[in-house]
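Notes from hallway chat w/ T.B., transcribed later so I don't forget. T.B. wanted the structure written out for a chain they're using in a teaching module, and asked if we could keep both sequence and structure tokens in one place. Agreed to drop them here.
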Amino acid sequence: MREFIILLVHSHRFRRRASQISTGLNSTSTSTSGRYDEEVAKALAAARAWLEERAKTAVKPAVKPAVVLDIDETSLSNWPAYRLNGWGRVLIGGCDMQHGPCGLRAWQALGQSKAIPPTLALARRAREPGVAVFFISGRPASLHEATARNLREQGYEWIGLILLPDCAQFASAVDFKAPERRKIIEHGYTIILIRSGRNDYSHPRNAF
């Protein structure tokens, strides 16, 4: 039976932690973003170590290994929008970059998000031995072009970019993402699970 390893670094944890870090600090303080970057780097260090180990055995002629990445607060940072919104999540509306508020969808449509360096390094390293990179995100499909351009300009390469179909409704992100991961497996890929939001390492049966 094939063994899976999926990379799932959940953005909610990072958004929550960013808010915690910013409490009591000036929102423009470089120490705030520095501490946030440290949190992200720490979370992804174990993921990269696991990828390095699994890549030694997973890349075989009969196996197509893959990693699955979220986008927001995992691969790309929405830090400027959250900072303008006082670390709140303003989803709809325009984005006033001078004074705020900044609607998250409007910000994402600008395609100006910066790559989160440890994730970019991980994605690049994954591709070196032939591990495929997939993105699955709750961003609406209407942002596909802007998202693809943003990812590409920040240095990412991928096999699949899967966004939430417009007007689709799911009870949770899991209800959308789990079936999409199954589709990747049905196309012959072995997804390598490195990290989840609940546990550092999860058994395949807990991945879907």
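Follow-up for T.B.: The chain has a mean pLDDT of 77. Might be a good example for the class.
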